[in-house]
Write the C-alpha cells for this entry.
Amino acid sequence: MTAVAQEQREREVVTYADVQAAYARLQGVAHVTPVHQSRSFDEAAGHQTWLKCEQFQRAGAFKFRGAYNKIASIPDEQRARGVVAFSSGNHAQAVALCARLFGVGGGHERLRGGDCRL
C-alpha cells in the first residue's frame, strides 16, 4: 500500500468519537425506532432474534441517519451549494429529506436510462 493510500485509509477509519458526534447530531432529529421479536421467526431460525423496525425511521429507512449526519457535518457555505445522491432508492429519499431539513435547494432532472441530475 502506498503512503498516500495508507493516509487516505487512516482518514476513513471511524472512531468512537465520530460515533459519539453523530449520535449528538441526530438527537431530536432521527426517530428512536423499536425493536420487536417474532415467535414464528424465532422458531424458524432456531433461536431468539430481534428485529430493528427501521421502516418507522424518517424516510422509511436507516439511511436517514447517515444522510443527516453527513449533511450536518458539511460546512454551511459548502452545503448551500447543494447535495447530490447517486441513488434512486432509500438513500436518495433520505438525502432529499435531509437537504430539505437544512434548506438546501435544488431539484432533479430525469435523464435517459433512469439517472437523475440535481
Summary: The chain has six helices and four strands. Residues 21 and 27 are 10 Å apart (CA to CA). The longest helix spans residues 90-101. The chain has one domain: 3-31+59-117.
